[in-house]
């Protein structure tokens, strides 16, 4: 859900510009990168940045393959005019505008029933996943376990990432990291310039290594006992995948999923300067292709008869298996969960009737509702996101209320 970089003092930009001028080296991408990082959570309009991440960061292609699959069109759905949230009836158009929505795709019974774009986006626009990309990492871990490249979900991370020995990740299992229960100390408050996620952002902006940053983290709680959202847990799983499979996460995703689901576009993955994928949230995909990933999970990991992701893994990914992972509040989960449950890098909304979601900052969603045979994709650039550590800023629970209104309207249409 919540991954990204934090504001960096504008003076750092000036320092970098002056430095490059002094040494006579034109490093425009590096300058642009620091400018971008400094603008996040400041209320700035990020639409152009979010659809052009390959102009800001180094990237690696996630190659598609074979013929493109175009989701067939179904009976068109007009969006509901309103939805109910916290006992209030709210205007749907105002919500779409207020969260800076750029794309909305609704697929039911395998048919495209609504597709709409705003702010210059089109069906061909590749958009940053932010933490929706964590759910891609989850799928790849499941595949690697099924192939025997990772021995067990209960293996310790240091078995595959020995460089993290004697750090906060020593003694943490793969399952702990998948469930955001590593016990590693972490602060993911986007409104706090001194938080760990702010340090994460500065590391990325100034060309540092995510692996080296992970080595600085220490233990705060016993692993597997407390749910605390920590983007570094997913980042570390990217390292596990790379070492266990001998392939980059980009290549592994291309081979195992992207080349098989009829993706309409090559995707790409943001890298750090050491060449490591930003596993915490750096995938860039079109809205239609995000929907195909959602359809893959809706179908239990099966695509046209081929089991791409193990069915039991898909089920476990959205089935909380410990009290501290269940929807609702308790003393063994952080308030940053907003009352949602957690699986293997997938969120389970409270009172969702089996629905689950991948969530990224600035309001990115792949929402899967098996009971209604429904997938909804929403890409956004909510400029208020992270302005404060509250739902009024995040608007994630409100988004689920909007999705339920869409589902209810589909149910009503079916009943007619």
Describe the protein's architecture and organization.
The protein has 416 residues and is of the alpha+beta class. The chain is built from 15 helices and 15 strands. It has helices at 10-23, 28-39, 47-50, 92-98, 132-146, 157-160, 174-178, 196-205, 210-214, 231-245, 249-258, 287-298, 311-317, 391-394, 396-415, and strands at 59-62, 82-85, 88-91, 101-108, 111-117, 127-128, 267-270, 283-285, 302-303, 306-307, 341-342, 347-348, 356-360, 364-369, 374-380. The strands form five sheets. The chain has a five-stranded antiparallel β-sheet, sandwiched between helices. Helix 5 (132-146) runs parallel beside helix 10 and helix 5 (132-146) packs across helix 11. The chain is globular and about 60 Å long. It starts with 9 loop residues before the first helix and ends with a helix. Mean pLDDT is 92; it is low at 1-26.
């Amino acid at each position: 859900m919540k991954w990204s970089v934090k504001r960096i003092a504008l003076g750092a930009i000036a320092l970098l510009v002056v430095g490059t001028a002094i040494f006579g080296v034109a490093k425009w991408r590096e300058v642009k990168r620091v400018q971008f990082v400094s603008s996040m959570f400041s209320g700035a309009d990020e639409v152009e940045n979010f659809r052009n991440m390959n102009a800001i960061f180094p990237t690696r292609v996630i190659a598609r393959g074979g013929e493109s699959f175009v989701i067939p069109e179904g009976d068109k759905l007009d969006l509901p005019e309103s939805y109910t949230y916290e006992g209030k009836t709210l205007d749907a158009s105002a919500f779409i505008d207020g969260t800076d929505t750029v794309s909305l795709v609704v697929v039911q019974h395998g048919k495209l029933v609504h597709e709409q774009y705003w702010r210059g986006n089109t069906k061909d626009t590749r958009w940053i996943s932010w933490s929706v990309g964590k759910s891609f990492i989850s799928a790849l871990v499941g595949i690697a376990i099924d192939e025997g490249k990772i021995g067990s979900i209960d293996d310790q991370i240091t078995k595959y990432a020995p460089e993290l020995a004697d750090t906060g990740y020593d003694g943490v299992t793969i399952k702990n990291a998948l469930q955001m229960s590593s016990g590693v100390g972490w602060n993911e408050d986007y409104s706090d310039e001194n938080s760990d996620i702010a340090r994460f952002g500065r590391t990325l902006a100034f060309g540092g290594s995510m692996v080296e940053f992970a080595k600085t983290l220490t233990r705060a709680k016993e692993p597997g006992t407390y749910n605390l959202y920590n983007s570094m847990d997913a980042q570390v799983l990217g390292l596990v995948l790379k070492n266990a499979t001998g392939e980059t996460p980009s290549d592994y995703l291309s081979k195992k999923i992207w080349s098989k689901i009829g993706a309409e576009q090559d995707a790409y993955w943001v890298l750090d300067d050491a060449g490591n994928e930003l596993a915490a949230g750096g995938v860039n995909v079109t809205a239609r292709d995000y929907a195909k990933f959602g359809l893959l999970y809706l179908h239990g990991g099966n695509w046209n008869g081929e089991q791409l992701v193990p069915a039991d893994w898909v089920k476990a990914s959205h089935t909380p298996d410990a009290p501290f992972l269940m929807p609702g509040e308790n003393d063994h989960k952080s308030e940053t969960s907003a009352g949602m449950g957690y699986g293997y890098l997938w969120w389970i909304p409270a009172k969702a009737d089996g629905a689950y979601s991948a969530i990224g900052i600035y309001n990115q969603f792949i929402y899967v509702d098996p009971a209604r045979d429904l997938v909804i994709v929403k890409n956004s650039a909510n400029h208020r996101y992270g302005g404060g550590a509250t739902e009024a800023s995040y608007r994630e629970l409100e988004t689920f209320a909007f999705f339920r209104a869409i589902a209810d309207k589909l149910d009503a249409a079916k009943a007619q």
